[in-house]
From TrEMBL:
Origin species: marine sediment metagenome
Protein name per Swiss-Prot or TrEMBL: Uncharacterized protein
Length: 48
């Protein structure tokens, strides 16, 4: 099975189905700028 994208994980969880990893994302007003944002993205955290 191929690894899911960040978007697929979030959408799967909102439809009460099982994702390959626990989805996690920041809301725009809580997101960081610069190094912290890049590090979150590199670790697979969805940013919206």
């Amino acid at each position: 099975m191929a690894e899911m994208t960040q978007y697929e994980r979030i959408m799967t969880a909102t439809h009460k189905k099982r994702a390959d990893k626990l989805p996690f994302f920041h809301w725009w007003r809580h997101s960081q700028i610069g190094w912290t944002e890049r590090e979150c993205r590199n670790r697979g955290m969805g940013m919206s």
